[in-house]
Amino acid sequence: RIPILMDCDPGHDDAIAIMLALAAEKLEVLGITTACGNQTIEKTTKNAQGICELLGKREIPIAQGRKAPLLTPVYTAGIAHGDSGLDGPQLPNPVVPLAEESAVEFLAEKLMKSEKPVVIVPTGPLTNIATLLLCYPHLKEKIDKIVLMGGSIVGGCSGRGASEFNIMVDPYAADIVYTSGVPIVMLGLDVTNDTTIQFEEKDDFRKIGKIGTFVAELVDFFGRGFEMIGWHGVPIHDACAVAYLIDPSLFTMKKMSVQIDLEGEYTMGSTVGDFYNVEGKEANVLVGLSSDRERFVKLLLEACQSYEKG
Ligand code: BDR
Ligand code: CA
């Protein structure tokens, strides 16, 4: 099994990513840390706890992350995820207390203790991960790779102007991560915007039972904005990072050099990829370009079914 640490800001698609990871036999989730992104850190943390409670996964330790991006102000996405960060489904109150350590200490400890190199899976702003790399540089060798949802090379924006939300919210953290030398796999909007659950597929989830219904309810709420702009489905961005680890053949990928724009008045936080290797720099990122959407949805349906079997 591949040991992974998830760093997330739930968030509807983060919730589906957690559901998928905790169902996957191939993955061993060592813990979940929370980031401030879709909502404030208190809200994303409570959501992470509620999700694990709903999934019946009380044994997964959860640690709370940093309160704000490294240098820029808190910027949340209530417009997409609601006031709670996870509006729509009813979550149970968390029973299990949080880990005592902060997210960064927790991540460091898990890396130190792991015999195998660990994959870090961030699906929110990269604040905790950048702090980890700055404070514990020697632990880089314990990280197998970072498989993240964030950025976009050619395929759109979900933040302000040209940038994707997770990178835009903490561009300085993203810069630290992208220049760290740790191998990076990036599932950005280029691939995630096309990796949707179509609206007519919601019923297939509902039919499965409790967890399938949870996914359908997440899609109901998160889907409102996409329906309004004429989309036929909802991109399940964050679950792409987890799906990549379960079955990389779902995605086509390309290695390239990617830098974070920290200067642009309108483009700060955009991920600038040298698609044709014009500059001849060494590639630092394996970038997702496209996915097999139908097989991705099948993977999600199977994951929901696995919870029914207990
Ligand atoms: C990313 O932004 C957040 O709103 C989602 O949870 C996802 O991680 C997509 O741009
Ligand atoms: Ca997220």
Automatic annotation (TrEMBL):
Gene Ontology terms: cellular component: cytosol
GO molecular function list: purine nucleosidase activity; uridine nucleosidase activity
Keyword list, A-Z: Glycosidase, Hydrolase
Span of domain Inosine/uridine-preferring nucleoside hydrolase: 4-297
A Pfam family of this chain: IU_nuc_hydro
Listed Gene3D superfamilies: Ribonucleoside hydrolase-like
Single GO BP term: purine nucleoside catabolic process
Protein name per its UniProtKB record: Pyrimidine-specific ribonucleoside hydrolase
UniProt organism field: Faecalimonas umbilicata
